[in-house]
């Protein structure tokens, strides 16, 4: 019988389309003590690179998949166990895991479960992970979709229910944003909660999504337990208008890729797959009209048009803010825009897509508000 203290670290499923990942670097070595949340390895997916955080505590006793090697989703990549577990048992577990990988007999990890609800005559698509009493709703930014949370949703879903929502006009949701106004988008989030029967939720919003969840909280404060704002729009006047307009109008790889580099501190994150996926999205009927409508909501000339700060002033829920220090799209706002008592963390080495470049910072911010 296998010692129950032997725990298996598996290749995660970070998105609906992810089937495998490549270990590009191990950040810990065999014999190292690890805890829940320890950064274990850098993993390359078909979308983007990310850092795997440990879901286990103990000692890293065996590496099954070496740096440079790939494994299918759900495959064991390392063994964790207390130091007192005999080496022979750990070696047997490593050998078993390697045999499973070689034979292809790997049970795929459960990924997000997708669904659709109708809100205001539109179908809204969403992906859900976990099943717990606390409900977290993740809302992406301008031009994004539910998959932008791929590195955040899984770790947050431990003991919780976490929904990643496609706003109107984005992802797999209906390509119709109405007038494109902030109130329209906030109404979609509130309608989503209604459709799922969620009385109160922790709302997390990135960029435009940050302004949207702020507006939702201002409209229905009794429905919101906390706000986590990730590089949110509407908390200052400065914006990279050239990026926003360039993203909307770009129709080829050559035109789009230079603009996407502004999203990350590490420009190598702009992979061919990322560019191709965004071009595919932008070519869907109705998308350009939606993006242009939303651009009118975001910008007044070359300045931000949204004033989310005044909305937040009337919201009395625990709030945290996370911003990438190297954000080239929306500069880090003055802390006074958020009022007193708001946690603000500026993350070095991260740009506008801080939830992709440092997902641990987002997880920590959300969990700090769960109480």
Task: Please write out the topology.
Blueprint: E1 7-10, E2 20-26, E3 33-34, E4 39-44, E5 49-53, E6 58-63, E7 70-72, E8 76-81, H1 87-103, E9 113-119, E10 122-129, E11 135-139, H2 150-156, E12 161-165, H3 182-196, E13 201-206, H4 208-219, E14 224-230, H5 241-249, H6 253-260, H7 272-282, H8 287-298, E15 299-300, E16 303-304, H9 308-312, E17 319-324, E18 343-347, H10 354-357, H11 359-368
Parallel strand pairs: 11-12, 11-13, 13-14, 14-17, 17-18
Antiparallel strand pairs: 1-8, 2-4, 2-7, 3-6, 4-5, 6-8, 9-10, 10-12, 15-16
Helix pairs in contact: 2-11, 3-4, 5-6, 5-8
Domain Lipoyl-binding: 6-81
Pfam family, one: Biotin_lipoyl
Protein name: Acetoin dehydrogenase dihydrolipoyllysine-residue acetyltransferase subunit
Number of helices: 11
Q: How many domains is the backbone divided into?
A: 2
What gross morphology would you assign?
globular
DSSP strand count: 18
Give the oligomeric state of the chains in this entry, treating copies of one chain as homo and distinct chains as hetero: single chain
Radius of gyration: 21 Å
Strand order of the largest sheet: 9-10-12-11-13-14-17-18
pLDDT < 50 stretches: none
| Topology as a string of helices (H) and strands (E) | EEEEEEEEHEEEHEHEHEHHHHEEHEEHH
Give me the CATH superfamily of the largest domain. Alpha/Beta hydrolase fold, catalytic domain
**What do the pLDDT scores average to?**
92
Give the termini separation: 39 Å
Largest sheet: 8 strands, mixed
Q: Approximately how much beta-strand content do the residues carry?
A: 15-25%
In the CATH hierarchy, the architecture of the largest domain is: 3-Layer(aba) Sandwich
Tell me the structural class: alpha/beta
What is the CATH topology classification name of the largest domain? Rossmann fold
Which CATH top level class of the largest domain fits? Answer: Alpha Beta
The helix fraction, in percent, is 25-40%
